[in-house]
């Protein structure tokens, strides 16, 4: 009994120290890091705006100095009926909170509804109008919009992938933003490497990108978006060695960009995940996350990178995905990687280091052994 109470007290003390550490990190001034007109790397993280512990997730992202929050805009879910209009009240509240924290937002448009899909993919005019709606509705936010991650796949595009159709849609969205004088940045391409068990209609992302250049899309994509949903534990895996899911797959993307004289363009890794099946301990996961940011930051052509994910969905969380904030029964759990990311950002921006209160106290076994708060 005494030993159990001692362990509980120790966990509470450790978590309290973690929260104090996060809040004490000196936040750098927001300079829209990661954009083409910035020399700073943009630290990003993805969350579910309708998921669990959203308020705590925003507070944690702000406390560790994150620049960008990434989120999916499930078009079919939020605007199922064209005549009825979009259902954005909950999203409005979330965006206001993000604005108060001065967190820049990347909205990734996914899953077009039936009324906004054609035989060639998402409807050009409907997509452009949605981009305009988001740009005007969320003027208070520093905003970027990603057009259809996984556009080189049947699932991501909603039809057989077509670089020419994507370029036409991209150009329409670009033009409508220019017509209203919006500063919203488009993250274009929606590239995603294909797994070995690909669908018959999917297109290799490098072939798709080459098709975009041949279609004349370069002038509309200063930022090329890339999703890496299955990164292996070995961060240095050679993408030319047969592993399309390697983190360094961005090198292959860059070679295509250089081939088409697009050296001024940036790559955004708009989503990548920690492989918890290969990394069983909290320490391994924390080190992997820290090193992944460092590796991408070292590439001057990578503008921003978004770890996925900060909080779980409200229902049916993916058991194979790492969430840095969780709730088990009545207890909130914070992953020690949060403190490590905060230290990395602080060192990057200020040259200062912050002592890690978790050093030496974190369990090194079991991916489900979390530091638990009161």
Q: Could you explain the architecture of this structure?
A:
The chain has a single domain (32-372), classed as Glycosidases (TIM Barrel, Alpha-Beta Barrel). It is built from 11 helices and 13 strands. The protein starts with a helix and ends with a strand. Residues 1-17, 23-31 and 356-374 have low confidence and may be disordered. Strands 1-2-3-6-7-8-9-10 form an 8-stranded parallel beta barrel, surrounded by 5 helices. Strands 11-12-13 form a 3-stranded antiparallel beta sheet. With 374 residues, the chain is of the alpha/beta class.
Topology, please?
Layout: H1 2-24, E1 42-46, H2 54-63, E2 68-74, H3 75-78, H4 89-100, E3 104-110, E4 117-118, E5 121-122, H5 124-137, E6 143-147, H6 154-157, H7 163-179, E7 185-191, H8 205-214, E8 223-228, H9 249-259, E9 266-273, H10 282-297, E10 302-308, E11 325-328, E12 331-334, H11 337-350, E13 371-372
Parallel strand pairs: 1-2, 1-10, 2-3, 3-6, 6-7, 7-8, 8-9, 9-10
Antiparallel strand pairs: 4-5, 11-12, 12-13
Helix pairs in contact: 5-7, 7-8, 10-11
> What's the arrangement of strands in the largest beta sheet?
1-2-3-6-7-8-9-10
What overall form do the CA principal axes indicate?
Answer: globular
- Distinct helical segment count: 11
What is the subunit arrangement here? single chain
Profile the largest sheet.
8 strands, parallel, barrel
CATH class equals: Alpha Beta
CATH architecture: Alpha-Beta Barrel
The amount of beta strand, in percent, is 15-25%
* Helix-strand string: HEHEHHEEEHEHHEHEHEHEEEHE
Query: How far apart lie the N and C ends?
Result: 19 Å
Secondary-structure class: alpha/beta
Query: Do you know the CATH topology?
Result: TIM Barrel
* Tally of individual domains: 1
What's the β-strand tally? 13
- CATH superfamily (homologous) name: Glycosidases
Mean pLDDT: 87
Estimate percent helicity. 25-40%
Low-confidence stretches: 1-17, 23-31, 356-374
Using only CA atoms, what is the Rg?
21 Å
């Amino acid at each position: 009994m005494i030993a159990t109470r001692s362990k509980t007290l120790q966990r509470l003390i450790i978590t309290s120290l973690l929260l104090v550490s996060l809040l004490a990190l000196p936040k750098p001034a927001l300079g829209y890091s990661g954009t083409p007109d910035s020399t700073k790397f943009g630290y990003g993280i993805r969350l579910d705006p309708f998921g669990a512990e959203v308020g705590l997730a925003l507070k944690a992202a702000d406390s560790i100095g994150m620049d960008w929050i990434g989120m999916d805009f499930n078009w079919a879910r939020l605007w199922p009926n064209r005549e009825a209009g979009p259902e954005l009240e909950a999203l409005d509240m979330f965006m206001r909170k993000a604005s108060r924290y001065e967190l820049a937002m990347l909205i990734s448009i996914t899953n077009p509804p039936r009324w906004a899909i054609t035989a060639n993919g998402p409807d050009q005019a409907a997509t452009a109008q949605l981009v305009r709606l988001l740009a005007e509705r969320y003027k208070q936010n520093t905003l970027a919009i990603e057009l259809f991650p996984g556009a080189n796949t049947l699932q991501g595009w909603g039809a057989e992938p077509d670089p020419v159709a994507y370029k036409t849609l991209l150009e329409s969205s670009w033009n409508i933003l220019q017509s209203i004088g919006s500063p919203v940045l488009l993250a274009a391409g929606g590239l995603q490497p294909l797994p070995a068990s690909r669908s018959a209609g999917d297109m290799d992302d490098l072939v798709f990108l080459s098709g975009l250049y041949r279609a004349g899309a370069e002038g509309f994509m200063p930022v090329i978006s890339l999703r890496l949903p299955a990164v292996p534990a070995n961060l240095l895996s050679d993408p030319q060695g047969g592993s399309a899911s390697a983190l360094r797959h961005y090198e292959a993307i860059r070679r295509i960009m250089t081939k088409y004289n697009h050296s001024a363009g940036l790559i955004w890794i708009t989503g990548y995940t920690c492989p918890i099946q290969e990394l069983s301990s909290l320490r391994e996961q924390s080190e992997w996350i820290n090193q992944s940011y460092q590796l991408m930051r070292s590439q001057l052509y990578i503008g921003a990178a978004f770890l996925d994910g900060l909080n779980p969905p409200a229902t049916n969380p993916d058991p194979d995905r790492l969430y840095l904030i969780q709730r088990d029964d009545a207890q909130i759990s914070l992953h020690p990687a949060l403190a490590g990311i905060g230290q990395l950002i602080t060192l990057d921006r200020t040259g200062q280091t912050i002592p890690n209160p978790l050093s030496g106290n974190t369990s090194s076994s079991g991916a489900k052994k979390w530091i638990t708060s009161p």
